[in-house]
Specification:
The structure is a homodimer.
Chain A (H helix, E strand, L loop, with lengths): L1 E7 L3 E8 L4 E8 L6 H19 L6 E8 L2 E3 L4 E4 L6 E3 L1 H6 L6 E5 H12 L8 E6 L3 E7 L2 E2 L31 H4 L1 H14 L4 H9 L6 H7 L3 H25 L3 E5 L7 H14 L10 E4 L6 H10 L1
Parallel strand pairs in A: 1-4, 4-8, 9-12, 12-13
Antiparallel strand pairs in A: 1-2, 2-3, 5-6, 6-7, 9-10, 10-11
Helix pairs in contact in A: 3-10, 5-8, 6-7, 7-8, 8-9
Pfam family, one (chains A, B): ROK
Protein name (chains A, B): ROK family protein
Organism (chains A, B): Candidatus Stercoripulliclostridium pullicola
Chain lengths: 314, 314
């Protein structure tokens, strides 16, 4: 059978047609144009599905199901987008609307959840039934799989691991609370930490690397640290602790088979990943008496959303 | 059918024979004598089961299953106690050993997990499929039920919510890490916070209440606060924040139907519970757009362990 996975983003909607093994037969993307009313966007998604089927030479009746990953709070049981941060979606009955055009079983979930499912089914978590997926990007997104099933919570409002506490009363977070993990471990937070350290250390190599890139980015402190810069190393040391500490909280709660890290920072390689792994090994509850949890880089990258949306249907 | 629930503690082993509705037909307790080798303790547990059946006038063959709640890390899938903090149990194949005496299906899990299951099935979480249970005692224990199933994690090493982070690098915790929720929200932590505040405030009413009780306890600051003592109120205010902040992390991850609080502090009534509820309402992710999570007092008290062990069998 064939499946269609749709990855809805604020700028782009990506779609893919695959089989149950995640093998692609077609892949396409369209602009979201998020300022539009939802029926127009949904109509475009249905067109995208038909295009995918056509270019794979598959009749739409051969598509067993369609899955969609959507940013925001998604009530998957009801097939409704409760609200979305990036797109003008509020209380949108997307499944019902979509099936006006293509009447196949249609599953939806939050984009981080869906990416987690994709990694667990087809990516670096393949073969694992219990997976915690963490994206370190603009925010900290988490997708959690327990016994092979997505943890979604009431109304799809769970799995918001980015908003677990890291430092009570600490840095303000976009959610209105202070001290969330996201306020310390997101790429946004890393850039803020880097900028602060640069102000205090005018001779740090971070200034050189930021000038070369034309901006302070999530790479700046890593580049300086790898070149032996003390101030850069201090930023990376602290950031490793922030990331690891939040992962340890997840490990203590879920004790999954593995924790997968996605997002730009995961490209820092062993320099980053191995140090996070060491802290997780050392400080997770029960130490060596409890099963070790491997921290791995997520591997599906841009396809995680599409393949996760397919996995929603399986 | 009949079921037997066994609640194994460091001092006492309690047992009860009930039906599937949690109605008691017999209840008994024996001393654990935890210094003994495990086969002796298991033999006593089997005797306890036979006694329970006898005093209920039930033949042991009418008992459908036996459940046990045990402190420590429990590998429920294997029926093995990995290790226990309070009893001399390490790698104990308790299910196999027990079935030498009474060969019925036997289920085991961690005591906080089992208590959570008891509250969800028969107590203040009755009718809920998604429950987070928190005990504020010597430590902070958590039991988590997702879609009606206990969250146990690999090797039973999950659901250690007491060791999620509250303040990175903060107070040392018994687990070897710093800043765990348990190091701020346990009754032990509250007593430490009270003692520190008393040292700084020699005229606080906390001294009077501690003298009356003969010791500083988890009640001292609450008694003083309720009597209008400023220093006592400051202790309670901070403690409410610590408890609520950890609950908010749980809500953001699990978004359960309800959070149940057990342990001595839950007896402080509305003065405590309503203030925790207000913070949870205000700071949980998504605010009013997301489903509200009710914070309730656990109600089964001493029977939670036995009834939870029965619920393990259902």
């Amino acid at each position: 059978m064939y499946y269609i996975g749709i990855d809805i983003g604020g700028m782009t909607i990506k779609g893919g047609l695959t089989d149950e093994n995640g093998k692609f037969y077609a892949k396409k993307a369209i602009d979201t144009k998020p300022e539009r009313e939802y029926p127009e966007i949904v109509k475009d998604i249905a067109e995208l599905c038909k295009d995918l089927a056509a270019s794979a030479g598959v009749d739409i009746s051969e598509v067993a199901a369609v899955g969609m990953g959507i940013p925001g709070t998604i009530d998957s049981a009801k097939g409704v987008i409760t609200y979305s941060n990036n797109i003008n979606f509020e209380k949108v009955p997307i499944v019902k609307e979509f099936r006006k055009y293509i009447d196949v079983p249609t599953r939806i979930s939050n984009d981080a959840n869906v990416a987690a499912l994709g990694e667990a089914r087809f990516g670096s978590g393949k073969g694992s039934k219990d997976v915690v997926f963490v994206t370190l990007g603009t925010g900290v997104g988490t997708g959690i799989i327990v016994n092979g099933v997505l943890l979604e919570g009431k109304g799809g409002a769970g799995a918001e691991g980015g908003h677990t506490c890291l430092k009570i009363g600490g840095e303000p977070c976009s959610c209105g609370k202070r001290g969330c993990w996201e306020a310390y471990a997101s790429a946004t937070a890393l850039i803020r930490q880097t900028t602060r350290a640069m102000e205090k250390n005018p001779s740090s190599l971070m200034h050189k690397f930021a000038a070369e890139e034309g901006k302070v980015s999530g790479k700046t402190a890593f580049l300086a640290a790898k070149a032996g810069d003390k101030a850069g190393q201090a930023v990376v040391d602290a950031y490793v602790k922030y990331v690891a500490e939040g992962i340890i909280s997840m490990v203590n709660l879920f004790r999954p088979d593995c924790v997968l890290i996605g997002g730009g920072v995961s490209n820092e390689g062993d320099y980053f990943m191995k140090r996070v792994q060491r802290r997780v090994n050392r400080f997770s509850y029960g130490g060596k008496r409890n099963p070790r949890v491997e921290v791995r880089k997520a591997e599906l990258k841009n396809d995680a959303g599409i393949l996760g949306a397919v996995a929603l249907c399986l």
